[in-house]
Amino acid sequence: MSDINSHTFKHHELMNPGHLGCPGCGATIAMKFALQALGEKTMVVIPACCWGVIAGPYPQSALNVPVLQTAFATAGAAASGLRAALDMRGDNDTTVLTWAGDGGTFDIGFQSLSGAVERNEDCIFVCYDNEAYMNTGVQRSSATPYGMRTTTTPAANWKRTGKKNILEAMAAHRLPYAATASIGYPEDMIRKFEKAKTVKGGSRFLHVLAPCPTGWRIGSELTVKIARLAVQTNVFPLYEVNGGVEYTLNFNGNRRVDDYLTMQGRFKHLTAPDYERIQQMVNSEWELLIKKAGEFIH
Ligand SMILES: Cc1ncc(C[n+]2csc(CCOP(=O)(O)OP(=O)(O)O)c2C)c(N)n1
Ligand code: SF4
Ligand SMILES: [Mg+2]
Questions:
Q1: Which end of the chain is least crowded, N or C, by CB within 10 Å?
Q2: Distance from residue 247's CA to the centre of ligand 1 (Å)
Q3: DSSP secondary structure string for all residues of 31-94
Q4: 33 φ, ψ to 5°?
Q5: How far is CA 209 from CA 15, 128, 212, 272, 289, in A?
Q6: With 90 as the cut, is the pLDDT of residue 17 above it?
Q7: Does the pLDDT of residue 165 top 90, yes or no?
Q8: 104 lines ligand 1 (CB under 6 A)
């Protein structure tokens, strides 16, 4: 990738060293990069999720930007109200950023997000995806991948359905900009947040893979490595969609899914035929993406 390792940070640190996340929390790293790109004129809307805890109890805060905590299902609506209030005050500069987990995006928050994006609200909507309801004890969501054990898909009943393709669902709203990002590729992620900030004309959506050592049953030192492997195996491809239709692929992975799956306790029950099945699923999604992008573009 041409520009993936060539970024210089523009903004000073907007996250404090202390926070209430677990050691190695990918969602915490994701926020650090997002704010480095967006800068201090940002207001963050957080529904119920791990980040509702990570930020800390008022008057303490891990963030040096304002935070509005809202109900699990309502990030899109709360952000719309905040945007309207800022606009009434003549403040068009401040970025309104929703920061929801996969449960608050793919599942219970989906109607609110879809409504906000259909109205083309001038906000950046982010899903930090740790692929389950982590804050309440690792229950499956519709972002949980095929093969994962969670507390609601335990033992032999590991999840047998695939992950919802949230980026396609958002692209179907024909919003100005949507992209995937991984905390394992900070330069690419920061570039996408900077782009989301400058794109005018309505809603932007970013889907960020944020591994969770607790729920994925990995060592806290492996978060970034796993986030990179997800991209290198095409399990979580990096791409952008302009206007809901124009696809650009940012990275061409060539490793087998086994390299990703075998490092994680959440998949340790899987056998060779399961790896093969998942490889086939990944390959067919990747081929669809190539068709949409026309070709792989650096
Ligand atoms: C209406 C409602 N139902 C359930 C809850 C309990 N709850 C709080 S956080 C959470 C899980 C959030 O999962 P996700 O959005 O994926 O974020 P994560 O915790 O994984 O960061 C749940 C079920 C709630 N706060 N409100
Ligand atoms: S449970 Fe997972 S997402 Fe939540 S704070 Fe811990 S590491 Fe982060
Ligand atoms: Mg989650």
A1: C
A2: 31
A3: HHHHHHHH-SSEEEEE-SSHHHHHT-STT--SBSS-EEE--TT-HHHHHHHHHHHHHHTT--SS
A4: -65, -40
A5: 19, 6, 10, 25, 18
A6: no
A7: yes
A8: yes
pTM of the model: 0.96
Q: Which residue type is seen at 96?
A: V
Calculate how far, in angstroms, residue 73's C-alpha sits from the geometric centre of ligand 3.
14
Q: Please tell me the number of Cα atoms within 13 Å of 194 on its side-chain side.
A: 14
Which token pair is 150? 């969670």
Q: List pLDDT tens digits, range 101-125.
A: 999 999 999 999 999 999 999 999 9
* Whether residue 34 has its Cβ less than 6 Å from ligand 1: no
What distance in Å separates the CA atoms of residue 77 and residue 195, rounded to the nearest whole number? Answer: 23
- C-alpha distance from residue 4 to each of 87, 99, 209, 225, 236 (Å): 35, 24, 16, 16, 16
The ligand whose atoms approach the alpha carbon of 130 most closely is 3
Percent of the chain with pLDDT over 90: 91
Structure tokens at 95: 């970025």
Say what angle helices 75-88 and 110-118 make with each other, to 10 degrees. Answer: 40
